[in-house]
Structures are given as C-alpha cells and as structure tokens.
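=== Structure Prediction Worksheet ===
Name of assembly: unnamed complex
Input type: mixed (protein and possibly other molecules)
Chain count: three
Listed entries:
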Amino acid sequence: MQNKERVISLKKLETNNLFRKSIPYLGVFPFALLAFFFLIWPTLVVVYGSFQNLEGGYGFGSLIEVATNEKYLNGFKVSIQLAAYSAFAGAVLGGLFSWAIANGNREGYFRRLVLAASGVFAQFGGVMLTFAFLATFGFNGMLTILANSYFGENILTDASWLYSLLGLVVVYTFFQIPLMLIVFLPAIENLKPEWKEASESLGGSTANYWLKIGAPILAPSFLGALLLLFANAFSAYATAAALISQGAPIVPLQISFAISGEVSRTNPGISKALAVGMILVVVVVMFGYFKLQNKVSKWVKS
Amino acid sequence: MRNFKRIDVWRWLIIGFVGAYLLIPVFAMLEFSTRGAPGERSTEAWTAIPTFPKLLSSIFSSLQLAVVVILAVVFILVPTMIWIHLRLPHLRRYMELLCLLPLTIPAIVIVVGIAPTYRALYQVFGSSPITLSFVYFILVLPYSYRSISASLFSIDSHTLSEASRSLGASTIRMIAGIIVPNIKVGIMSGAVISIALVLGEFTISNLLNFETMQVVINLLGKRDAATSVAVSLAALVFAFILLAILPTTNRSRSSKLKTNRKVGMVIK
Amino acid sequence: MSAAIEVKLIGLSKSFGEVKALNNFSLEMAKGELVALLGPSGCGKTTALRALAGLQPLDSGKIIVHDEDITNLPTSKRNMGMVFQSYSLFPHMSALENVEYGLKMRFRKFSSSERQKKSKELLDLVDLASHMNHFPHQLSGGQQQRIALARALAISPNVLLLDEPLSALDAKVRSQLRDEIRRIQLEVGTTTLFVTHDQEEALGIADRVGVMKKGVLEQIATPAQLYDKPVTSFVAEFVGLTNPIEGEVRNGKINILGQEIEVLPGSVTSGKAKALIRPEAISINKESNANAQVLTIGFLGSMLRVLLKLNNGSMVTAQLPSSDNPNYKIGDQVLMRINPVPVFAKEL
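=== Predicted Assembly ===
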C-alpha cells in the first residue's frame, strides 16, 4: 500500500516540477503566438500550397510548371539580373560613400544627418520612389525638361527607358546605396587606425595597405553586404508595381498577377510555387550572407 | 585650419556624386509638385492634399498603424527579449533566428501565405487597416530586434536585475523600472525604423486590399500626379526629421556610465 | 662611456586647439638605450612618440635620427618599428605573415625563403616559433604583443617605439612580458622609446626615465635618481609612494616629528611645507615617548605595510622588511622615526 502511495506522490512531484519549469516559458507565449500565426504559418501555407495543382489536386504540377515554363523562367532571369546589377552598383557606390563618410568627423552633424537620411531612403516605399523618379526622368520630369530645353532631342527625351530593365536598375540603386551605407559603414569603421599606422611604419605605402590589408579585411563584409543588397532587390515588389513595368516582368509582379488574376482560379498553386522559388533563391543568398558575417566576427573579436 | 589633402578631394567628389544621385530626385519632387503657370511656382498641389478625404484618412490610418506597431514592440517584443535574456538564455539563438527570418522571406511571399489568415481576420476586425499591425509587427522584427539586442548586450542586465531583486523589486518593476530605462536608446531606434517601415509599406497592404497611405498615394498617382508627389515628399521629410532629432545612436562609451548611474540611483 | 646620440628631439611643440600636447619638448637618446616616457594620461608622452614615428605632425621642432634631419620624412621612410597598445597585429594574417610584412615592404631584394627564415628567427627570439601559423584571434594578449615586437624588429629599425604595449594586458602577464621586452631589447641592442603611465613599469626596465606633465618634461634621469632625488613635487609624488608630513623649513632643513631632515634642491626654502617621506624611510618602535598609533599591519610576504595615525590626526603608511620582527601590534602607541635621507618638501 505504501509503495503505491509513493508512486502516486512521485508522479505528482514530477508533474509539479514540469509545471514549475514551464512557467518561465509562459513569458514568451504572446510573442510566440504572433510569430507562429503571422510568420511560420504563412510560410507553411506557401510551401504546402505549392503542391496544389490544376483542378485543385495535389502533386508537383505547379512546381514543374514554374520550373519549366519559359514565361516564369524569364521572370526569374530578369529578377536575378535586376537584383545583381542594382546590388553591384549599390555596393560599389555605397562602398565608396561609406569610405567617404567614415573618414569624416565621427561626432559631427553631417554624419548624423547622412545616417538619418540613409535610414529613411533605405525604407523609402517603392511607390514614393517611383514618383520621385517620374518627377525626375518621366516624360514631364524635371531633368527631362531641362535636357530638352538645353539640348533639344536627347537620350532623356523618350522617357520610356525608365520602364525597362535599365530604368529599374537605376531606380533600385537609389535605395541600394543607403542600405549599403547602413550595412557596410560599421565594417569600414572597424578598420583600426593601428593597422594603417603599423603598415606605414613597416614601410608600406597607401597602396600597399589597401591591397594587402584593407581590402582583404573588408572583403567578407563587402561580399556579405552585396548579398544582402541582392536579396533586398530580388524581393522588392512595390517599385515595379508602381511603374507597371511591362519591360521587366519580374517574379514579384508575376506572383501578384497570379494571385489576383485568372491564374489563381485555374491553378492556385502557381503563385505559391513562384513564392517557393523566391524563397529558395533568397535563402541561398542569405545563407551566404550569414556565413560571411560569422567569418568577420571571428576577426573582430581579436 | 586643416590642411587640404588629396584624400579630401576624393571624399568630397564621392559625397558630391552620391549626394546628387540621392538628392536630385528629392529636389525634382519639390519642383514637380510646385509647378504652376509656365514660369511660376504654385502650392496648388500641396493645398489640395486635405481635399482628398481618402488621402487624409489613409494617412491617419497609417500613423495609427505605426503607433500600434510601436506599442507591440514595446509591450510584447521588449519584455520577451528581456525575459529570454535573463531567464531563458538557451532560447536566445532561436529567437534571433526567428527575428531575422522576415528578412529572408520577401513580403510578396508572406502575402501569398497570409491571405487565408487575413480572410479569417476580416470576419473579426473588418476592413480597418489596423489589422495589418499583426503582420507589420513581424516585418519590423529584424530591425527592432537588432537595435534592442545591441542595447541589451551593452548593459550588464544580469547584474542590474540581481541588484534590483536583492533590493526587493518585483519582476515587473525590475523590467519596467530598471532595465527598460537603460535600453531606451535601442528601443527608440527600433521604434523610429518601425515608423519608417510602416509608412513606406505597400506590398502587403496593396495585395490584401487595405487602404494605407502608400496604397492611396499609388491610386492617386494615376489621377493627380502632383499631389501624390507632394504627399510622398512630405512623408519623406517627416520621417527624416524624426530620425534626425530622436536620439538613436548608441554611444557605447557613455552607456556604461549610464548603467552605473542607474544602479547608483537604485541603491540610494 | 659616452655612447653615440642616436635620437634628438629638439623643441617639439604641438597644440590641439587650446590644449598644448607638447610644449617645447626636447629629448636625447643614446644608441642602444631604453628610455621610458612616464606620465598621467594627457601629458604628451604618446604625442611625442607618435611625432618621432611620423604619425603626428608638429607645429614646430626638429627630429634628428642618426645625424639625419627626418622632421619632414614620411612614416614609411623612417625605418622605425612600432608596437601599439592594442590591435597591433593584422587580424587576417598568421603570426608568420605578420612578421614577414615589413620584410616584404622594405626589402624586396629578399627572396621569400630568406624572408621566412628571418621571420622564424625572430619568432624564436620571442619564444613563439611554435605558433607561427596561428592567427591573432587564436593567441592571447601577451602572445600577440610578443609577435608585434618580433614584427617591429624584423625590419632592423633605427628606433623601436613602444606605445603602452602592456597596458591592455593582465597584471601577471604584464610583469612577465615587461622583463621579456627588456631582455630582447638588450640582446638586439635597439634604441628604444617606451611610453607608459605605470611608474613601476618604467622604473623597472628603463635606462633613463623621463617624467612628463602637460607637454613638458619635468625630469629625465635614471630610475634611482628619480626616486631618490626628484626635482619637482610632481615627480616626487608620481614616482613611488610618499607620505606628506607637515613641518617647517629653515636653513635647508625641515623640522618634522622633532627631527631635522635635509631638503632636496627644488623644495620650499622657508616656512611651512609638507615633506614627502618614502614608506621605507620610516622606522617604528614600541617606546614610551610615542608619537603615533598603529592602525593596521599588513603582511605582504617579504614586506610589512603598517598604517599609522600620528598625534595630529594625519595617516602615514610605512613599509618594513618582515624580518624586522615588529615588537608592536595593532592599537599600540609607538615611536615613529624618519631616516635622515634628504627629502623633497612641497608647498602646503
């Protein structure tokens, strides 16, 4: 009889302990709830839904369609081109800009204003960005009119270039540069003056320093930032939507057509399959980004 | 007077070029939105803003959204982060991964997956854009997490919490009264970026058919370009002023002093 | 023995806005000598070192090394090895590559095998040959600084410049490395300038020590001379411990606790003053005509540190060898006497 009582009271103790141990976890419950329903669940919906087929059946049909149909493949190609070109332009210009800012007064107002402006521009909604560029280079844009009045007919006159891939690259670079500044400036500022001074005292010129020390140390951060810029541009939707670019059928646009158009009725899996494609690209890129970040943090610790 | 070195020439050339790239379109917005009769400037596009009721209400909605998101950040994210930092440190890696996930999943993808959820929410909350605050909270996670976590790491939260506990403070008091004031800078920085993000968000609100500021500006743009440009410029300047004046930089040198001062106040 | 003068800093001046970092600062260093610049932060010692390195432009003054005026010579041509307080090493290069760097820059005539050989020799000199393929983040602070030293010596510099190289290290590592640096410096024979705010460090390894305050060189002398014959109150108090005891100065002597002690040149010449008494210049005995009370007795191994309270209320710290076997204990009234060694008397 006593043994049975002991077993019961031990079990009670176990559940009591379990209960007590899980109380702290209650603290993260609200957050976990939100994260699940608005982040994890949608992702699962997308992945699950990509297996939906024509006529509502299940299979690889949508995924295969997206992977083989020339229209969609072209969409991915253009998206990747757009992302790559604007990321490269943003990384180079933004990188130089970071260097220029890093060499200035670190406490000054100028730097503070530049960083504030960069924060705003980097989050600058695609719609507002489009209007800004239409106001500049559109058919009635400020620079178009100026150029026309000075030079007569010129390359800016026909403003339809803005709606092509080139136009999108120019517009995208606008928010890539500030993003580059925000991400890359810390890396440049982490270049310790001692390294340049040591290099000099050992007989190295400025060129020697950049070639053998500055560039190799900055390389992982630069590449990481480049990848981040790529992911950022690849994921962008608003700008293209506002420009209604016929000239650049990027994947986000195709997804929006798939959601709201006929395609969603005949084959609801297409939009999700396209989304899965996007996730794959971005995940690969971000994985590379995090790997590079880790490499950098190893050095910085020293 | 500083000697003008060759390096300064390069610096200003670069700043000039990039500055032009970024500022000319902004200036063009100003120019475009103030065009009047040939050769004249007019504020017509600007004064017309209040005459578009949808515009005003959408601006108001977006601002409300921003406030709700900030409240969510302050009352859900911050306590959760502090809690994990102090009590469940083994969960920190997972939280960090979770908070960086929204960067990896494009907004357009989230829209595709979240449409059914929002169809359900529509039954409960109706068509008010405020329901977007749920998904916007997720969108701001990477940015707010980053700035708050930087702050949390720069103060010695364990010592602070132990000191306040030994003096008899309850958990809530400790979080609200001791830890939060010391990470104010990180919270503010996260809040400001949230405002910029909410005001600039278009993808999700557009595809879910909510009328936020960006969506309305886009619609308006087809009819009255000048006014939409004016509103865009106003939003830009507003966000810029916010970011410029609020103390968002973490001066790591002085934050250690701040910690000591706060602890000193507790002990007194 | 008069060694050749290797380095002459003549009348260096540099201001940052209102603040005079260097105020007509002059210094000579003999070949093979280790000179330490000692002083509180902001005294100009680092500015002086950086000026010598060519990293700090000056308002006025001349720098002569090996009879050559190098005042306007850029850093990369000065052939001086430098070790910094922290972040000395290039983080993306191994220890060996770090040491090789100067050889690559300066001596392009060296083949890569010659470079490797010389670098390994230097790593041997600092006892880290086994770590030659390690990266800075894999090495401890002390190891990093030793490699930085090897790297600086690789280019056979005219002058070796050490900018507070030990300040960022743990106390134990600091004292070990201190002696290492001196040993290596003597072995290689390089003229060396060592900057520090730690007087124990400076006195422990230098041939001569220059004490600086607000851009001015207060005194430069051997460690013993600085300690026994300081010429200003700042030097007297900065170097070693002192006990200020009030007394009256007359005819070159100060009267304290009934004793007449000679004062050093530079002291107050008449009237009330404070004599700066070294802890080891005090003797204590339990006697009837006591003038102080024992507050604490601390055992420091070979030394005893005794805190005394004088009848006028002021506190004095005395230091005695433990072997003295004190005949007093805490709370006793004792007689405190001062050894009649000349002392510095400063103003009240």
